Amino acid sequence: MTKIQNPILPGFNPDPSIIRVGDDYYIATSTFEWYPGVQIHHSRDLVNWQLIGRPLERAAQLDMRGDPDSGGVWAPCLSYADGLFWLIYTDVRRRDGGWKDTHNYLVTAPAINGPWSDPVYLNSSGFDPSLFHDDDGRKWLVNMVWDHNFTNPGERFGGIVMQQYDAKAGALTGPVHNIYRGTDHRFTEGPHLYKRDGYYWLLTAEGGTGYDHAVTIARARDLAGPYETDPAKHILTAMGHEGALQRAGHGDIVETQTGEVYMVHLCSRPLSPEDNHRSPMGRETAIQRLDWPEGQFPRLAHGGQAPLLDPPAPDLPAHPWPAQDPRTTFTPGPLPLAFQWLRTPDAGRLFSLDARPGWLRIYGREAPGSTFENAIIARRQVDFSFHAETRIDYVPRGYQQFAGLIVWYGRDKFHYLAVTATEAGERVLQVYSCAGDFPRARLAFPLSAPVALPATGMVDLACDVTREALRFSYAINGDWHDLGIVLDQSAISDEAGSGEGANFTGAFVGMCAHDTSGTGLPADFEYFHYEARP
């Protein structure tokens, strides 16, 4: 029997929303502060997946300048109806404290690769919006509602609310109904509605997105409820279970063309579940096979509630995709799909592939951690152990100009191998490291002294990660030198620094340039190489 290898979308790919259109399957996942917004992967067999695009790619659709770390695009919902693809998403402008600013929007497209429309504003009452297309032609928006007043003691998640969406008017209409307040596991979010066997089925996530996360389902004969919670409470949770997949929750269900039922869900793979629970790759997407007998609550096909690493594949023809070349070279045109940048729709302020053909030019902008113009071009870490390498051509004039290779999670979690200069203008290699000290992030300089470099010429920069250990190295004219320091890669994770579940993205590795003098000095990069290691 063919098996599926979980996670099916490794690396930072949380909050999956899945649909089938004919013989094609699509999953949309959250991208938070990374631009362009929303990742969409494609499969024809539920086993092999390929990234095909990110639809939120212009300022009219998404401008996240000023959004905090782990803000931005949360929990998109992808659906298909009336010959259109419908994509709902949240832009989280504030996520800390008693209030949240969570603006929900809708875009549509005639094909999965677009063109995607300008957005329709929906509401800001909460996050995790989802659009349900009923078989009578009506459409309903559901989302969790944020209750800053703690109407239910100790609970700011105020339940799942529903309101009709008028597609012709492009607006919500009619009363808002609170249709489900969840269970005593609390933090009820991530709603998806389905209609099956004469019931409306409401799938939710509960328990928070940490190690108590879970998927819960309820049903009702009437769309507005009342909803009866599954007697088993949770379809899926890794809570209390040992195993490689943890933090399992936030699911969505799809039925194959042959009638088999599967649920995608987020999960994480901590480095050491028995120790610090740190997961540098963040929340990933996995899949499980369900049994869903007529009129009954669905169950995991393998039994129990814990996620399986290798569930059985559906009875569909295998459809693998071409292997990706580990080395990326740069040519004029769009940025290679594996890479993203932070927040701004004005990409030309950060980088160019045309200014020096065959090179990626990155313009030095604000300091690492700026929520406006932070010039980092990076890709996801998708392996516990990997080698990353690039070549930089860059001559800084002072210590306020620095560029190089970075492993990045957020403003208080990064390791940075930088070409910079002394006050006297002598070119040197420096390491900047911030290992998750929160709320006062502390920048460390792990080298005993900066490494002298030739005044001009290209420098090769590399990092080797072996689970929780990161080592930087550099080369001049092919002569490689290890810097002799070991940095904590486990700090580049959701759980480090500010506490378990407080951050929601994942580790990236890539190229960057910063110039706090304000002159925008560019750095040129010839290639980027990422390769898994045993």
What does this structure look like?
- Helices cover 0% and strands 46% of the residues.
- It has 534 residues and is mainly β.
- The chain folds into 2 domains: 17-300, Glycosyl hydrolase domain, family 43 (Tachylectin-2, Chain A); 327-532, Jelly Rolls (Sandwich), CATH 2.60.120.200.
- Strands 22, 24, 25, 27, 32, 33, 34, 35 and 37 form a 9-stranded antiparallel beta sheet that branches.
- The model has no long low-confidence stretch (mean pLDDT 95).
- A hairpin with a 4-residue loop joins β12 (157-166) and β13.
Notable characteristics:
single chain; 534 residues; mainly beta; Tachylectin-2, Chain A; Jelly Rolls; 2 domains; six-stranded antiparallel sheet; 37 strands; 0% helix; 46% strand; globular
Sequence-ordered SSE layout with sheet pairings:
Layout: E1 17-21, E2 24-29, E3 34-35, E4 39-43, E5 50-53, E6 72-81, E7 84-94, E8 101-109, E9 120-123, E10 130-133, E11 139-146, E12 157-166, E13 171-180, E14 189-196, E15 199-206, E16 214-220, E17 228-237, E18 246-255, E19 261-268, E20 284-291, E21 299-300, E22 327-329, E23 341-342, E24 351-352, E25 360-363, E26 376-380, E27 385-393, E28 401-410, E29 413-421, E30 427-435, E31 451-452, E32 459-466, E33 469-476, E34 479-482, E35 487-488, E36 508-515, E37 522-532
Antiparallel strand pairs: 1-2, 2-4, 3-23, 4-5, 6-7, 7-8, 8-9, 10-11, 11-12, 12-13, 14-15, 15-16, 16-17, 18-19, 19-20, 20-21, 22-37, 24-25, 25-37, 26-36, 27-32, 27-37, 28-29, 28-36, 29-30, 30-31, 32-33, 33-34, 33-35
